[in-house]
Amino acid sequence: MDPNDPIRFAFVLDGQGGGRELDSAAVQTWKADDGVLWIHLKRDEPSTRPVLERALGLDAVTVAALLAEETRPRAVLHDGGAIVNLRGVNTNPGADPEDMVSLRIWVDRSRIVTVRLRKLLAMEDMAKAIADGAGPKTSGGVLTYLSERLVHRMFPVIDEMEEQLDGCEERLIDNATPEIRKTLGVIRRRAIALRRFLAPQRESMIVLQTQDAGFLTDLHRVRLRESADRLQRIIEDLDEVRERAAVIQDELSSIMSEHMNKTMYLLTVVAAVMLPLGFLTGLLGINVGGMPGADASWAFWAVCGGLGVMVAVEIWALKRLKWI
Fold it and tell me: Which tens digit of pLDDT belongs to each residue from 22-64?
């Protein structure tokens, strides 16, 4: 495959779950009578725009939407079709799942055009399903299948976050607090980032299932409604993850605060015991004449004994007062 070819996949669906793969030349000659076309393009190739404008005949509004730099999930009916932006978790090596990959879609009765910048495994799933004869049969089926696969690949990420929280709770019980704070920060940041895109994505699916889109059948609408419901469960799971992370973080702060208070209390008690001893040793260490015991060999041990007795009396008094 030419690395500069903007076409990642191109299939003409046979209406039975399979399809015939097309090359760049065949895409140029495709006609609606040949069957439903699915073409998957790379957004960052300069030749992508000519394919959209000339080979596929899309209008300027649609082309601009498919090649936009920044997108949020949405669904807008336009000129007999729909412009749909969806997001999928980033499962590419070394990437953060919350850095979600944008998928831009144009769909009408005879074709579905998908454009992406980074790799999405959901697209690989559908290409394989079509090659195996188990894929969607219509353009509406392609859109429905993609929506389901994008949602399906989100669940392992949510499960991983919940497992990390379970591990944080276990380490909190074992007082392994220093290693928890960083993990909690990552989990909360990931949950916030995922929810930011999933909430509008659910709304876009609701728009598609409620609007009069001719390329969607009643079965497609039911499947889109199911995908929207699963997205709602994911959003609720993310809210729960955020709340659990906040509770664990509060508990962690409480444990650390309690530990700090104990340390400060111990230091205060030590300071209280040492204060009179420091005063006496400082007084006995002044360099003036007439210091009692300066010439007696027993004076040092007498002072040490007196200080020991004073420490014992102080500790007794502190215990009597229930300070220690």
Answer: 988 888 889 888 899 999 999 988 899 999 998 888 999 999 9
The bridge status of strand 19-21 relative to strand 81-88 is unpaired
Integer Cα distance of 7 and 45 in angstroms: 9
How do beta strands 81-88 and 37-42 pair?
A: unpaired
pLDDT at residue 110, rounded to an integer? 93
Q: Are 199 and 206 in contact (CB under 8 A)?
A: no
> Whole-structure pTM over 0.70, yes or no?
yes
Q: In whole angstroms, give the CA distance from residue 89 to residue 75.
A: 19
Full domain range(s) for residue 158: 7-254
d(CA 290, CA 22): 110
CB-neighbour burial class of residue 84 (10 A; exposed 0-12, middle 13-18, buried 19+):
buried
| Contact assessment for residue 189 and residue 99, using Cβ atoms and an 8 Å cutoff | no
Give CA separation, 113 vs 65, 122, 195, in Å.
12, 15, 26
Question: What is the residue type of 139?
Answer: S
- Number of domains observed in the structure of the chain: 1
- Tell me if 2 is assigned to some domain: no
Tell the residue number behind the tokens 């007696």, with chain if given. 296
At residue 116, the 3 state secondary structure works out as strand
Question: Reading across the β-sheet that carries 74-78, which strands appear in turn?
Answer: 19-21, 7-13, 37-42, 111-116, 101-107, 81-88, 74-78
Classify residue 310: in a domain, yes or no: no
Q: Are 138 and 36 in contact (CB under 8 A)?
A: yes
pLDDT at residue 230, rounded to an integer: 93
